[in-house]
Amino acid sequence: MVGQSPLEPGESRTAVLLEPFVHQVGGHMSMMKYDEHTVCKPLVSQELSFYESQPSAMRQFTPQYKGVVSVHLKKDSLGNLTLMASPSLQTESCARLSNAVGDSSVTLWHKCKWAAGAGSEHALVKWSHTQLAKSFKESCPGKLLLRPDLQYRTDPLLEDANGNQPERNSSNPWGLHCHRQHLNRMSSKHNENKLHQFLLLENVVSKYNYPCILDLKMGTRQHGDDASEEKKARHIKKCEQSTSASLGVRICGMQVYQADTGHFLCKDKYYGRKLSPEGFKQTLRQFLCNGNHLRTDLLEPIILRLKALLSVIRKQSSYRFYSSSLLIIYDGQEHKENAAPLDNHLPFQKTNCTSSHGAHHSRVDVRMIDFAHTTFKGSKCNHTTYDGPDHGYIFGLENLIKILQNISEGK
């Protein structure tokens, strides 16, 4: 797999043409969708080292590692860029694509190419808003729009069922922004024959119909041991000027389904950096508010899962999860028995929703991601050995739990 040549035209039936991952809410590196249950990202040796040797107790809180795949850039006659993955037999056994007609696990690019037939190079056109809309609608059933409250304002992304674009600037700009930047960087630095290695990871939101995602940058320190003095100073300043210093956690991105409008409300990392501790708390409330009422049914299972993670992290001696993120995920599609009307005078009041341990746990998840700067004793990329657990990360988790408990108690 490593070092193999890009596939010849006659062998292209085995290649997977990657599409942007439409549910990327944070980070700076583009995540790509490999199949319905698998995403991929550029391989960083330190992150690979973590996934290959992580403690078994942590595996329930991280995406499943599915292997490595070779990826190369492809440019058509019009100059449009795509990424093609060349799976090995090992990769296929981990993340097998279904080629059945109409199967949603077949990538959108796959459908475009085979529908056009052999020799039709123009089938591999750049990502249009219509295609992205189709991809998003395959990921989320129903008529959905993303309503960004972001600094990035692009052209309309999603259309309604009739093909209309009722709102200008309706887009998922962060993931699309990362994707465009990544393609441009690859194009400017490397030729088409250059092979890049990507990590294959579990798509942790694939089981959700309307994935509501909160991306939290954890810890009081964000720079890795290998950071330059300039980068170190930059990250320290970001922490000091945000809730990273005061709470050990800051918001890096968010999308939350609004049941009253059928939109996703989005926030980006620039929004998160400006928040005060009180603003952080209010945004956490907003993440749990579906436009009609506060999802109090989710608070207990999220808190329990965070407490379980905290217990695991406290036992991980020498680990430092610098610049890693924590995802809190739940399904915006609410069971009818949990729906409650909104009291206009108390928009964030605690509702009469019941919360049971069994019924709601499957609809929430907590996952650690992004380990490019994670260090631990015995790491192949280890620069510094630390003693004891990551107290900055623990500080962030404890504050996050405390804030959610206060919300649950109506404070």
Automatic annotation (TrEMBL):
SUPFAM superfamilies: SAICAR synthase-like. Coiled coil: none annotated. GO terms for molecular function: ATP binding; inositol hexakisphosphate kinase activity. GO terms for biological process: inositol phosphate biosynthetic process; phosphatidylinositol phosphate biosynthetic process. It is an enzyme of class 2 (transferase). It comes from the Eukaryota. Keywords: ATP-binding, Kinase, Nucleotide-binding, Transferase. Belongs to the inositol phosphokinase (IPK) family. This is Kinase. It comes from Lophotis ruficrista.
